[in-house]
Write a structure and sequence with these properties.
Number of helices: 13
Strand content: 15-25%
Structural class: alpha/beta
CATH topology of the largest domain: Aminopeptidase
Number of strands: 17
Largest sheet: 6 strands, mixed
Oligomer: single chain
Helix content: 25-40%
Radius of gyration: 25 Å
Shape: elongated
Distance between the termini: 61 Å
Bound molecules: zinc ion
Order of helices and strands: HHEEEEEEEEEEHEHEEHHHHHEEHHEHHE
Strand order of the largest sheet: 11-10-12-15-13-14
Number of domains: 3
């Protein structure tokens, strides 16, 4: 597919000559136009992604120009059927405009305030999407330094909300998208971890955009995470299937047919999310790392078992053991990594539960409890020992705290001699 981007080979608009030749041959008039159906733009501090949804495969070229810095996208036979997105204010993307440099060519221009590397690719139809032209932009961080780490001795938990952006993940009968559920649970867990003494959390994504599986696990490796947890709520072809489950990596085949199939589906997420083939191919370093994963897998199984034990208090578990398969996202060397299925979004009852704040609080609380118990089982766990006390945080209610620890509100009130539901921030509640 990338071969059609002729401009990248020498900068000469070869296709234009082909176009003229076709014009002479009279063939061009029968060629249907390429409808540009939607343009979506996501931009972060150093990266941006521009998705252009096309009605059909197209001849295209993408190049950058300077003074001022801009990226030019030419689509042969392109017809704009949508409005142009406006970049977020204050970012390094200035704006977007369109024009026709020559008849029959649609030109889109993205104005930038600095130089950027471009990586364009035409993605084939996948997961409900038609042809998409993805242009990934990357610039150097300007003056921005990475946020200061509070304490390097903190127990770092990297939380990965599955899917995102163009990849919605599984979708329930009520229209609930897995990417949304995963982000909601992850954000809740993020706040919980950060309020724990000696612990710190990092999210692989905090908004609705896609990042590659490799980038997700790289965050865990590069930041020296103590544990990595990927959060999902996948589909099952039997609507009656229900319950939570936990997965770890396997280097020698899957422990069940379901685990194998799930890993295959998850590993395909990159394509729906818009990661180019170049970024998905394994490299030499990765093959080397594969050899050193045995210890990581053993630790991951222990972490998974601790999380599963806590999930048992939330409700039904789909499997009572940690299942294993070759999940690409779990391959961070030396970082114990698990994938938590918070329930099947294809089960009507569980879809409703996943939409409820209290259930998501229960799942997040169980994951946190599992991580802490896993740590306490290690000889050098830096976390303070378990205290059967909860310090009330802003925005918390008795029912939310009850959900977090999977205990009843009445039990909580009884243990603390409370006669009403009123609690105040900073209050210390004893836990049964
Ligand atoms: Zn998933």
């Amino acid at each position: 597919m990338k071969g059609v981007s002729l401009a990248q080979r020498g900068g000469r608009p070869v296709w234009l000559m082909a176009f003229l030749a076709a014009l002479l041959a009279g063939g061009v008039w029968s060629k249907p136009p390429v409808m540009v159906k939607q343009i979506r733009l996501w931009s972060g501090s150093v990266e941006a992604q521009l998705f252009i949804d096309l009605s059909t495969a197209a001849r295209w070229k993408v190049f950058s120009l300077v003074e001022p810095h801009r990226v030019v996208i030419d689509i042969d036979q392109g017809q704009l059927e949508t409005s142009l997105p406006t970049p977020t204010e204050g970012g390094w993307l200035r704006g977007m405009r369109s024009g026709h440099p020559t008849p029959g060519v649609l030109r889109l221009v993205v104005d930038l305030d600095r130089k950027a590397q471009i990586d364009p690719v035409l993605l084939p139809p996948v997961g409900g999407h038609g042809y998409r032209l993805l242009i990934a932009l990357r610039t150097k961080a300007a003056r921005l330094s990475t946020p200061k780490i509070p304490s390097s001795r903190d127990y770092l938990v990297v939380i990965d909300p599955g899917h995102g952006g163009d990849d919605p993940g599984a979708i329930g009968a009520q229209g609930t998208q897995e990417k949304w559920v995963a982000l909601k649970i992850a954000r809740r867990l993020f706040r919980m971890v950060n309020s724990e003494p000696g612990m710190r959390a990092l999210l692989t994504r905090s908004r609705d955009h896609y990042i590659s599986l490799r980038a997700r696990r790289s965050i865990a490796s590069e930041k020296d995470a103590m544990v990595f947890v990927s959060i999902h709520a996948d589909a099952f072809d039997r609507a009656s299937a229900s319950g939570t489950s936990v997965y770890a990596l396997s280097r020698r085949g899957a422990t069940s047919a379901l685990a194998a199939r799930l890993a295959k589906a998850e590993n395909a997420a990159d394509l729906a999310g818009g990661v180019s083939i170049k970024d998905r191919s394994p490299d030499v370093a990765e093959a080397m790392l594969d050899m050193s994963l045995d210890r990581q897998i053993e630790q991951s199984r222990q972490l998974g078992a601790a999380v599963l034990a806590m999930l048992a208090r939330v409700g039904k578990r789909h499997s009572v053991r940690v299942e294993q398969a070759s999940f690409a996202v779990l391959k961070a060397p030396q970082v114990p990594s698990v994938l938590v299925e918070s329930g099947y979004i294809t089960n009507l009852e569980e879809e409703s539960k996943l939409r409820s704040v209290l259930y998501r609080e229960q799942i997040a609380g169980a994951i946190l409890g599992g991580i802490k118990h896993y740590c306490w089982d290690q000889p050098e766990c830096p976390l303070p020992p378990e205290r059967k006390v909860h310090v009330v945080q802003a925005g918390e209610s008795l029912s939310l705290i009850g959900a977090r620890y999977s205990i009843g509100v009445n039990q909580l009130k009884g243990k603390n001699g409370l006669t009403s539901d009123l609690i105040r921030v900073g209050q210390r509640l004893r836990l049964p």
